[in-house]
Amino acid sequence: MVLTLAFRNLFHDRIRLAVTLVGILFSIVLVAVQLGLYLGARKMIVSMVQQADADLWVTAYGAKSFEDSAALRGGERHAVLSVPGVTSAVPIVVAFNEWRKPAGGPTVIVLGGPDPEGGGLGPWNVVAGDLRDVIAPDGVAVDKSYLTDLGVAGVGDTAQIESSRVRVGALTNGIRSFTMAPYVFTTLKRARGMLNLSNDQATYLLVKLQPGTDRDGARQAIKDKLSNVEVLTSPEFEGRSLDQWLFATGAGVALIGGALLGILVGTVIVAQTLYSSTKDHLSEFATLRALGSSKGYIHRVILLQAALSAVIGYVLGMGIALVVVSFSEQTALPIVMTPELAAGLFILTVAMCSISAMAAIMKVTKIDPAMVFAR
Question: Which of the 8 DSSP states describes residue 55?
């Protein structure tokens, strides 16, 4: 009977039901998009650090993020390799640079120069061309999502980085930059030449340790040997990059703020609708009270109405959100939808509708059963 009464109350006024569902839809889609963008941004910011095969990162002092660090002075690699437990220290060069399009006009890029033989970090998810063509003279690898920004059509096209001619040798899929400056991979030697660095300079040293080596001890030993450098673990470097791009710039706060706004708007709309519906049915609820129904019974009816609204609104809202996610996959800032986020949105929707039902429950609590006999 509780389910039947809740269902009939909910569907009795279909226009009001539509308004309720629109409020829930708006809230779910907005929260899903905002939090999905936040997760997508996090993924892009830490993707390079997560992809790198490194136990420790040796960087110039004050490095803010993967893209934003000064070059090391030079000669640090030999000092790092002399530390007990260190098996490799792979140099890579990373810096903002200027790409000149074939048809004219510049665009900012993030130039990455890994050691092709040393491993550590390099382009992945290659979908066209071959990494051997990147090692060849003038070769570079770019992500296919940035072809329009770079002014090229695909493998074989040429452009310039500074005064150096480059040719697209490979295309990757899914290597995106939060800064919107495309990643362009070339070789370590070629990147050093483009940036006027000496043969022993690098932006980072990716340090690998022997299994069982005390990481903190090796880290301290490297610090003791070198001055004006920082030695970071991968989680520390990820956290620093996230702080720089999401919170120092305010981007993360804006995304989370948008999600909170969606929750607030959805809660207010659902609360107003449930309250209005309950007010219109006060005489029916008073009749139930006069027939001996408990307050708890009526409260369960209202909460079940809210739960039904939540389930229907969630299904429709997630359907729309998933369509938006699919359309964003090939954009510069894809929206990420994870099972955890989907489950969290369902719990959030139920909680939002339950909180919204409180105003209606408070109104019903004040019903005097005698009002049914006064009509």
Answer: S
Closest CA to 20 of 278, 261, 300: 278
User: How many Cα atoms within 13 Å fall on the side-chain side of residue 267?
Assistant: 16
Residues in the chain: 375
Cα separation, 25 vs 33, in Å, equals 12
Question: What's the DSSP call for residue 370?
Answer: G
| Ramachandran sector of residue 292 (left: φ over 0; alpha: ψ -120 to 50; beta: rest) | left
The 8-class DSSP code of residue 70 comes to P
| DSSP 8-state symbol, 84 | T
Give the integer Cα–Cα distance in Å for 32 and 265: 14
CB 182 within 8 A of CB 146: yes
Q: Residue 139's beta-bridge partner residues?
A: 167
Judge contact between 35 and 212, C-beta under 8 A: no
Tokens standing for 80? 């790092």
Rounded to whole angstroms, how far apart are CA atoms 95 and 178? 15
| Burial of residue 282 (number of CB atoms within 10 Å: 0-12, 13-18, 19+) | middle
Model's pTM, two decimal places?
0.76
3-state secondary structure of 129: strand
SS3 helix, strand, coil % of the chain, rounded to 5? Answer: 55, 15, 30
Per-10-residue mean pLDDT of the chain, 375 residues long, equals 64 71 79 83 86 89 85 87 89 91 89 76 87 86 90 89 88 86 89 88 90 89 87 89 80 76 73 66 65 71 78 88 86 84 85 74 65 53
Positive/negative CA dihedral, 336, 45, 209, 220 = negative
Rounded-to-integer distance, Cα 258 and Cα 260, Å: 5
Residue 41: phi and psi, rounded to 5, are -65, -45
Contact between 356 and 67 under an 8 Å Cβ cutoff? The reply is no
* DSSP E strand stretches across the chain: 56-60, 86-100, 106-113, 126-129, 139-143, 158-161, 164-172, 183-185, 204-209, 229-233
Q: Where are the domains of the chain?
A: 2-44+250-373, 74-227
Provide Rg for the chain, Cα atoms.
29
CA pseudo-torsion sign 99, 101, 104, 106: negative
Letter for the amino acid at 169?
Answer: G
